[in-house]
Amino acid sequence: MVALVWLIAGILLAAAEMLTGEFSLLMLGGGALITAAVSYVTNFAAWVTALIFGAVSGVLLFVLRPMLLRRFAGNPPHPTNIDALPGRTALVVESVGAHEGQVKLDGDIWTARPLVETDEYPEGASVTVMRIDGAIAVVWKGP
User: Fold this and answer.
1) Hey, where are the domains in the chain?
2) Which pTM value belongs to this model?
3) How many CB atoms are closer than 10 A to CB 40?
4) pLDDT per residue of the chain (143 residues) written in tens, 0 to 9
5) Considering only CA atoms, which of 17, 44, 39, 47 is closest in space to residue 29?
6) Nearest to 38, CA basis, from 28, 52, 27, 26
7) Span 81-140: which CATH code?
C-alpha cells in the first residue's frame, strides 16, 4: 500500500513538471519513484520510506538538477542569424541618414539608419552595426 502511494506521488510530480520546466518537481518525482521501488521490494515502515524519499530527492535536487540546468537551460553558445550581427562592421553603399541609406553587411544589402538620428554617413564609410530593428540595421560610426 505504501509503495502505491509513492508511485502515484511520483507520477503526479513528474507530470506536474511539464508546467514548470525547472526540473524541481521532476527530481521530487524521481525520488518518489525510487522510494516506491524500495518500498515495494522491502517492508520498511512509512517513516523509513519518508527518510529514503528525502535523501534520494535531496541528492537529485542538489547534484543532478544543477547539471541538467547547465545542459538544457543555457543560451546557445554562439549567436546566430540576426543575433550575430550587432558589433559587426558594415560598408555604407548608399548615404545613411535619418530616412534613407543602405549598408553592405556580410555580403547582403541592408536598409540602414544611424543610431543618432542627426548623424549622416557618406557612401564608402565603415560603420558598426549596433542593433537590428526589424529589417533595418541601426549603425554608428563611433567616436
Assistant:
1) 2-72, 81-140
2) 0.54
3) 13
4) 889 999 999 999 999 999 988 899 999 999 999 999 999 999 899 899 999 999 999 999 999 999 988 888 776 677 778 888 898 999 999 999 988 999 999 889 999 999 988 899 999 999 999 999 999 999 998 76
5) 17
6) 52
7) 2.40.50.140
Answer whether 72's CB lies under 8 Å from 106's CB. no
Q: In the 8-state DSSP scheme, what is residue 96? A: B
The C-alpha cell at 37 is 521501488
Amino acid at 128: T
Rg, the chain, Cα only: 28
- Read out DSSP for 1-47? -HHHHHHHHHHHHHHHHHHH-SSHHHHHHHHHHHHHHHHHHS---HH
How far is the C-alpha of 78 from the C-alpha of 83, rounded, in Å?
Answer: 9
Give me 76's grid cell.
546557445
Q: What is the pLDDT of residue 100?
A: 92
